[in-house]
Each structure stands twice: as structure tokens, then as C-alpha cells.
Amino acid sequence: MTFRTPVRPPHALALLVIAALLGGCASAPIVHKGSDERFETTAPPQPKAPEHNHGAIYQTVSAQGLFEDFKARRVGDVLTVVLAERTNARKSANAASSKDSSVRMVGPTVFGRPVTHNGTPILDTNVSASRDFEGQGDAAQSNLLEGSIAVTVSEVQANGNLVVQGEKWMRINQGEEYIRIRGIVRPVDIRTDNTVLSTQIADAQLAYGGTGHLAQSNSPGWASRFFNSPLWPF
């Protein structure tokens, strides 16, 4: 006969703490050039093989309209986006509530007399409650992004609109800063110098950030992320 010592399961609180610490230690995904395919440079399609045209001067492979300009219109063409983003947002909220309630119940009588102890009724009940709440919140945010970034056309939609995407990386001191953009551009909004304002891009996705020691110094540590996460119950 074999006797086995029962194994006690880990304490539920200890498991919760470990899971919370692991969740707080989770770091942001690593960002580097080419880490997101939505912003990768799009190459133009491969040229078609030359066709036999019996000695004609006109070649369909290298055809170009006589009255075309140099605006981006095909997959792989380069377009310059002028960043002119400025946003200001402010929100303020105030809330207050209060509630008072009271309940009084007279004790029963026995043989026409109330139940008392040393002359004091012991079955009378009197309950009162008071609750107050007051909250105030204020938030303000202002962003300014200026400059320019060259992107490529990744898709030409059926209505002629251009889907553009691209990223720009700059190495400064011990870190790198990047700008990413993706969106839909109308050909009519492209100016004569092959530029378009970022405010005229539909479904725009803009990202500005950095990597390195300076970016890490602006990020909270794992303990701060844990205490500010929804896992912290207090």
C-alpha cells in the first residue's frame, strides 16, 4: 500500500498577485523600421515584357502620355505629404450626489406592554443612512505636428483614389524618431508640386514616436504600470 501526501494547491491570492505582476511587467511591442507592413514602402509593378511590334517606334512598355504631369497616380509612385496637424481638446466634468434615508420600526407589545429591559425598549429599531458623492475631472490635450514625409502609392482604388503609406526614420543621438502615415488621397487634392496636405487625407493613420534611452526615460516602469493597471483593485 502506498501513501501519498496530499499536495496543497497554491493560494489563490498568491496566483492573483503573480498574474498581476506579470501583466504589469508586460512591455510595449518593439518598434523598428519595417515592423508594421501597413507603412512599408510599396515597389512599382514589374514592367511588361517587350512585345514584337514589327519595328514601330511606339513601344507600349515605356509608353507615357504627352500631356501627363509628374503627379503620383500609379502604384509605386512617390507623393510628398505636408504635415499640418494641430489639435486642441479640453474636457471638464463635475458630478455630485447625496442620499439620506431613515427607517423606524416600533417593537411589538406583549400583553399590551412593550418589551423593555430596565425600562428601555429593546425591540425598537431605528436605522438611518447618509451617502454623499462628489467627483470632478478635467482633461486637456494639445498636439502640433509639422514637417513633411514622402510616401508611396500602394493601391489605386476603383474610383481613382490613391492609398498611400510610408514611414520616415531619423537617428538622433542615442535614439531614433519615426513618423508613419497611411491614408487615402484624392488625385484632385494633389498640388502641382506633387504634394498634399495631411489634413486632406481620408482615413488617415499617423504615428509619431521614438526609440532608445530618451523614449525609455519617458515611459513608466513595470511597477508604475502595474499600480495604474485595471488589475490593481484599489
Structure description:
This protein is mostly beta strands. It has 2 domains: 137 residues, no CATH class; 47 residues, no CATH class. It contains 3 helices and 10 strands. A hairpin with a 2-residue loop joins strand 7 and strand 8. The longest helix has 14 residues.
Tags for this entry?
10 strands; 6-stranded mixed sheet; elongated; two-stranded antiparallel ribbon; single chain; 2 domains; 234 residues; mainly beta
Tell me the radius of gyration: 35 Å
Number of domains: 2
Q: Quick one: overall form?
A: elongated
Biggest pleated-sheet summary: 6 strands, mixed
Largest sheet: spatial strand order: 9-1-6-7-8-10
- Rounded mean pLDDT is 76
Approximately how much helix is present in the residues?
10-25%
Count of alpha/pi helices = 3
Helix-strand pattern: HEEEEEEEEEEHH
Q: Point out poorly predicted stretches.
A: 5-9
Number of strands: 10
Beta-strand proportion: 35-45%
The helix/strand class is mainly beta
What is the end-to-end distance?
Answer: 51 Å
What layout of secondary structure does this protein have?
Elements: H1 12-25, E1 78-105, E2 109-110, E3 113-114, E4 116-117, E5 120-121, E6 125-156, E7 162-172, E8 175-185, E9 195-197, E10 202-212, H2 213-217, H3 222-227
Parallel strand pairs: 1-9
Antiparallel strand pairs: 1-6, 2-3, 4-5, 6-7, 7-8, 8-10
